[in-house]
Task: inverse folding
């Protein structure tokens, strides 16, 4: 009997140690969540972010982790694929917060995803930090109950907004009339609201045209636009539609494009048919790899990590939102705040410094990111001119 | 304005032939098997992906990739007909449920193989024809000619060959056709495979014009069914006309009305036609 009691005590003590050891182990890991579209027609906004985050987490862990308050922590990344589906994203976020107890979530880049998780996020205000590039987040920053939000992309409007600088660039090229052809969805209307004002201020005539999000043949609306003879076409915001639009537009004689979201891919595929393609590119990696050692190292590391000879030059600029730099920046903020758990302190620390990584990144007082970017101008035959911008 | 309208009329006709090829598949399948096969849209999508894989991934020339893709999709159509649709003959509801289930399976397989990331094929035939200010992309013209030839060939085969006349006879009176020596099972399986092949051809040609995503089939099967109903299910040349009417309604509608509701214009036309001709535009009125 006595030996049985002793055995039970031993088991209980062992279990106790095991639980304590488990707790200690859990405290040494900082879990990061990510809700982005890694596949799907909207994956332009998400795929590169997820690629970069994986790399940063791996690098930090391989370097032995990071120290906060004399304790060494490692990172654990939870990044399921939303496929651009708001319902999926909501389920994934719930799991992150309720089961995985994650306090730092990166993404989403897409406004439709943000709208899908917004209500749930608000309910958990103060329990986690959501760092996403979605345009709609801009409108929520600073509002009561939205302390959990930070926006990880340049804002379009305002004196130092990238969109304003892009419109100025177009004005200098002598554009008098711009025709927008945009998806009839949440972000499409946000874009129209922003750029209607920006073009009006610049004295450029702005025409609005819409298409259903699943459209493939744009001939009818493009023919209507072509009849109005705009100087530039301002097409949709994802590569999934841009390839079709640019190809079909050039066939109808619309050969000048100006866009604030989307890659250079459609321009390069149609380089013999376009006259001008002006795009907001957070960083033109093809040029930067020759002038910025950090960019060169990132490209080499990417190839080694993903065991590939190809670097995704067209997608890499979107690593400017909730991506590689942001993981390092968050770690730096935790070190400065002296805590990995106090969300408010970490957020305050994030807003207190400029991070010098692939980009020079800082957060303004509202929690919105400001970073340097490039305006890339592709002309007929593929000749490229890059203008570097540093917003104030 | 006239130039714009004429341009969109032409574009509507060309885009409409893509709807028509699906409408033709729908009408043939329904006439012979009694099933409205919604999976034809998924077969079309599969045809587009197979063509893209054969050309851009495997490096096979496009003119060779198209028939290969058509054969693959037709073979798949035959397999699923024998495994699934054979048991739902002349049972509209069961056939519909099986076809919807099949769509889910095909889309899931496509997602596994090609993911949901849009794919863009290299330009097969770049450039445009310009006639009096009206612009027609060369590839669209080729697609139109190929589809028109296939539709005319189908019509000729149905009206000028024994097998075609047997199919017509079976569609009108299955028992009488069987008594006259028509091999019912062979005929039904052949039509199922041919319809799938037509959808595969539509997809293979589609891939040369637009980017490919797993959801393209859902849009095209709806337009195909719209075209078939508008024409009156059972008429081959009517399906052709039905598809074109839908395409033209969308093209012209987008000029005079907001382009954001492009898909609605064909539907409005369909409702208007059915109000006055409930059996369809070209079907014999009862």
Result:
């Amino acid at each position: 009997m006595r030996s049985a009691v002793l055995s039970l005590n031993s088991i209980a003590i062992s279990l106790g140690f095991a639980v304590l050891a488990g707790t200690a182990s859990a405290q040494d890991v900082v879990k990061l969540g990510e809700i982005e579209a890694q596949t799907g027609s909207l994956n332009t906004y998400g795929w590169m972010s997820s690629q970069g985050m994986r790399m940063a987490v791996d690098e930090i862990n391989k370097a032995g982790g990071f120290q906060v308050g004399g304790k060494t922590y490692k990172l654990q990344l939870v990044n399921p694929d939303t496929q651009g589906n708001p319902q999926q994203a909501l389920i994934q976020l719930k799991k992150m917060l309720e089961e995985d107890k994650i306090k730092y979530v990166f993404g989403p880049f897409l406004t439709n995803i943000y709208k899908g998780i917004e209500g749930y996020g608000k309910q958990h205000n103060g329990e986690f930090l959501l760092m996403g590039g979605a345009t709609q987040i801009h409108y929520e920053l600073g509002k009561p109950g939205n302390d959990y939000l930070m926006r990880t992309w340049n804002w379009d409007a305002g004196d130092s907004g990238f969109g304003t600088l892009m419109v100025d660039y177009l004005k200098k090229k002598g554009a008098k009339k711009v025709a927008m052809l945009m998806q009839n969805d949440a972000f499409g209307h946000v874009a129209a609201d922003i750029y209607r004002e920006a073009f009006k201020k610049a004295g450029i005539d702005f025409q609005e045209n819409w298409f259903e999000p699943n459209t493939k043949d744009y001939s009818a609306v493009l023919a209507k636009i072509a009849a109005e003879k705009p100087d530039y076409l301002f097409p949709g915001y994802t590569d999934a539609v841009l390839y079709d639009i640019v190809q079909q537009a050039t066939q109808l004689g619309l050969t000048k494009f100006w866009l604030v979201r989307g890659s250079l891919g459609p321009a390069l595929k149609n380089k013999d048919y376009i006259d001008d393609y002006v795009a907001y590119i957070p960083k033109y990696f093809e040029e930067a790899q020759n002038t910025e050692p950090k960019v060169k190292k990132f490209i080499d590391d990417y190839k080694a990590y993903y065991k590939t000879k190809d670097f995704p030059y067209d997608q890499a600029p979107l690593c400017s939102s909730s991506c590689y730099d942001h993981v390092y920046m968050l770690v730096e903020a935790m070190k400065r705040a002296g805590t990995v758990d106090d969300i408010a302190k970490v957020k305050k620390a994030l807003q207190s410094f400029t991070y010098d990584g692939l980009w020079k990144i800082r957060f303004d007082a509202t929690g919105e990111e400001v970073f340097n970017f490039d305006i890339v101008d592709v002309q007929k035959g593929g000749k490229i001119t890059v203008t570097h911008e540093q917003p104030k | 304005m006239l130039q714009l309208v004429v341009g969109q009329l032409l574009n509507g006709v060309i885009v409409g032939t893509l709807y028509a090829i699906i409408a033709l598949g729908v009408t043939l399948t329904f006439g012979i098997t009694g099933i409205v096969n919604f999976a034809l849209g998924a077969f079309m999508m599969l045809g587009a992906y197979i063509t893209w894989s054969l050309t851009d991934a495997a490096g096979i020339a496009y003119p060779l990739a198209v028939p290969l893709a058509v054969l693959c999709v037709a073979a798949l159509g035959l397999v699923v007909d024998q495994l699934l649709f054979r048991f739902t003959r002349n049972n509209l509801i069961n056939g519909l449920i099986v076809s919807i289930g099949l769509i889910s399976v095909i889309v899931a397989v496509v997602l596994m193989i090609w993911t949901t990331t849009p794919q863009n094929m290299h330009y097969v035939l770049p450039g445009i024809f310009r006639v009096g200010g009206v612009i027609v992309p060369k590839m669209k013209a080729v697609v139109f000619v190929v589809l028109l030839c296939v539709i005319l060939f189908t019509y000729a085969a149905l009206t000028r060959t024994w097998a075609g006349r047997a199919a017509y006879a079976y569609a009108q009176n299955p028992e009488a056709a069987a008594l006259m020596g028509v091999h019912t099972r062979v005929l039904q399986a052949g039509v199922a495979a041919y319809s799938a092949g037509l959808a595969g051809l539509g997809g293979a040609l589609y891939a040369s014009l637009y980017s490919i995503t797993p959801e393209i089939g859902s849009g095209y099967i709806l337009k195909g069914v719209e075209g078939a109903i508008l024409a009156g299910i059972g008429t081959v040349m009517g399906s052709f006309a039905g598809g074109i009417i839908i395409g033209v309604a969308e093209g012209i509608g987008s000029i005079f009305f907001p382009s954001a509701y492009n898909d609605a214009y064909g539907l409005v036309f369909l409702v208007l036609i059915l109000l006055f001709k409930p059996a369809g535009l070209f079907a014999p009125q009862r």
The mean pLDDT of chain B is 89. Strands of chain B lie at 128-131, 134-137. Chain B has eleven helices and two strands. The CA atoms of residues 76 and 193 of chain B lie 8 Å apart.
